[in-house]
């Protein structure tokens, strides 16, 4: 018997004597938030994202204004004409989302209609995401309850950023360098 097998045998023996252990599942699943939109906007702004809170009727015109001459990917299912391009020539992507979390300022994509593929949302340097007020929930457990775990999920908390060993911040390494969010009220 090698060292690996010996260690695993000892672990198996120790665990066998432990018996069943009840795991408490009484953690918080919701949170009272007075203004979900305001909290979400504040948290997204804390992540250095650009945030616009506007009435839903103004969203199409604001998207056109923001996009301007950018070559953007507009995924199937997103309600916008024009501005379509492919991944190889894209300056950015415009998407919706599945859910957004006020407490953490996190946007979750499940890559359903209007949300694009993972490549479409991670490769371009710019991401404009439209979040409807009704998609904002208070906390992560509430968001998880709305999601299908079988779908590919991308959790976005601000523009992509990392730090090197000297703590120099580098943006855009693992996804878009710039995140802009329109919150549609």
UniProtKB/TrEMBL annotation:
Domain LUD: residue ranges: 87-183
Classification via PANTHER family: LACTATE UTILIZATION PROTEIN C (PTHR43682:SF1)
Segments passing through the bilayer: none
Protein's recorded name: LUD domain-containing protein
One protein family per Pfam: LUD_dom
SUPFAM superfamilies attached to this UniProt entry: NagB/RpiA/CoA transferase-like (SSF100950)
Gene3D superfamilies assigned to the protein according to its UniProt record, in alphabetical order: NagB/RpiA/CoA transferase-like
Family matches, as InterPro entries: FTHF_cligase-like_sf (IPR024185), LUD_dom (IPR003741), NagB/RpiA_transferase-like (IPR037171)
């Amino acid at each position: 018997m090698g060292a690996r097998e010996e260690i695993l045998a000892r672990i198996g023996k120790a665990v066998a004597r432990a018996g069943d252990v009840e795991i408490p599942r009484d953690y918080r699943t919701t949170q009272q938030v007075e203004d979900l939109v305001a909290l979400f906007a504040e948290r997204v702004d804390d992540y250095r994202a650009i945030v616009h809170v506007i009435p839903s009727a103004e969203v199409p015109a604001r998207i056109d204004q923001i996009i301007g001459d950018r070559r953007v990917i507009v995924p199937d299912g997103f309600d916008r004409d024009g501005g379509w391009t492919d991944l190889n020539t894209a300056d950015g992507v415009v998407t919706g989302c599945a859910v957004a979390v006020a407490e953490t300022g996190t946007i979750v994509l499940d890559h359903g209609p209007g949300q694009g593929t993972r490549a479409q949302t991670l490769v371009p340097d710019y991401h404009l995401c439209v979040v409807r007020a009704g998609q904002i929930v208070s906390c992560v457990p509430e968001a998880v309850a709305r999601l299908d775990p079988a779908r590919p999920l991308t959790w976005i908390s601000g523009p992509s950023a990392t730090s090197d060993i000297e703590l120099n911040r580098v943006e855009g390494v693992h996804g878009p360098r710039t995140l802009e969010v329109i919150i549609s009220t």
